[in-house]
């Protein structure tokens, strides 16, 4: 079970704070999307840690197919 599930067809807009770390769910199974809740332990997939360099809004990938994890690259438009 190593295939990522599509959590949603579109990104999650998240306001991030300078220096804070965010753990993005890469498997698509977390109940607390877009964040990891440990559900990946039933897969070979692992979460990705994102550390904010400034206060801003980022777009975490919802389809889990991005080539630039954890950020959305628009891949959901091709699904």
Explain how this protein is built.
- GO terms for molecular function: 2 iron, 2 sulfur cluster binding; metal ion binding.
- The structure is a single chain.
- The protein is an all-beta fold and 79 residues long.
- The chain has one domain (12-78).
- It has strands spanning 12-16, 21-24, 48-51, 56-60.
- A two-stranded antiparallel sheet has the order 1-4.
- The mean pLDDT is 96.
Q: Helices and strands, in N-to-C order?
A: EEEE
Q: Which structural class is indicated by helix and strand composition?
A: mainly beta
Number of strands: 4
**Mean pLDDT value:** 96
Strand order of the largest sheet: 1-4
Query: Over all CA atoms, what is the radius of gyration?
Result: 12 Å
The coarse silhouette is globular
Largest sheet: 2 strands, antiparallel
The gist of it:
The protein contains no helices and 4 strands.
């Amino acid at each position: 079970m190593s295939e990522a599930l599509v959590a949603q067809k579109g990104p999650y807009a998240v306001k991030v704070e300078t220096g804070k770390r965010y753990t993005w769910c890469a498997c698509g199974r977390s109940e607390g999307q877009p964040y990891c809740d440990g559900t990946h332990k039933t897969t070979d997939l692992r979460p990705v840690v994102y550390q904010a360099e400034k206060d801003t809004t980022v777009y975490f990938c919802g389809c889990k197919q991005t080539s630039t994890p954890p950020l959305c690259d628009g891949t959901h438009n091709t699904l």
